[in-house]
Every structure is written in structure tokens, then in C-alpha cells.
Amino acid sequence: MTYSSLPHFPLKSGRAHEVCGAGAFVFAFALAAHKGGKIIWVREGWEPTQINPNGSIAFVDPADLIICQTKTQSETLAVAEEALRSGAASLVVMTLGKPLGLTEGRRLQLAARDGASTGLAVIPDGMGSNAAETRWRCNPTFDPKDSTHQKWELIKNKSGTLGVWYVRWDTASRRLVMVSPAGN
Question: How many angstroms separate the Cα of 145 from the Cα of each of 22, 59, 112, 183?
């Protein structure tokens, strides 16, 4: 599969996007693999979900993954904004636990545009900013033969249509592969 087979992926550079669901980290790492270069991941230090750089080997070189821990969501947004504006990383991921206001979302969009970087906010289900370019819901799907199947739903898109795709990550080729829905 070429990435052009999956509409709207990879995500548009110079813009900030959102992802939610149990497969959000897979989505973020698949995007990081496509973007290449340095990835900055900003998260609050109290967050119980840890990011293991060794677990990212199937997607990216752990040496290219910079994990920043902050004390509050305000600090997370400030660090992400500066990272996006600097253009030092091809992808800036931020893990957010509270709703993002329109002002904060717009600031991220402007910073992503200025730095020609891609921003990705990992958000809880049902939460999102009106400023996001796209919003994705990603969840694993059950398949008795393959545990890597994901259902990716584009649930918000400022510049096109919505849709649903079934994908899996192929570790050997470091690529997304389109698959049929589980059980078909």
C-alpha cells in the first residue's frame, strides 16, 4: 500500500491534528515513521501511560524520539507550541487530558504553520478543539490471525470528506497496509 491509498494520511504538514482511541499511540508512531526525523512527544509527568522508547523501534529509531515531561497541561501546550514554531522536529505529539480551547488550538495551528511542522494532540474520546485540521478515532480490531489490525476513522476534516479504514502496521517494511475489516 502506498500512503496515498489512505486519504488524508500522512497528515498535512504545517497544521495541528487530533487523535483519540485505544490505538492513538499506534497512529502517532505510524505518522512518526512516515515523517522521519526528530519527534518531540510532550506529556504531563503524572500521566500513567508511559512511552517506552524501545517499544517504538518497530516505527522509529529511539534516538529520534525526544520525550518531554511537564507539570501541567498549560506547560505541555507551551512546550508543544515552541517545538512546533521552531521547526526542529518533523512531528510534535502532545498528550492532553483536558479540553483544548479555541485560543490554544489556534495558537498550535499558527505555530505549526510557522515551523512547517505537524502537530498531533492525543486526546480522550469525545474531546476536541474546533481548531484541529483533522480528528481521528483509532481502535484495535479483533482478528484471530493478526493482533495488529486497527480501525482508523476520520471523524473531523476541515478540507474534505470523512471515512473509515482498516489498517495494520507491517514492521518488516515499516509501512501501513490496508486490510479488510476483521472477519471478512
Answer: 20, 21, 40, 10
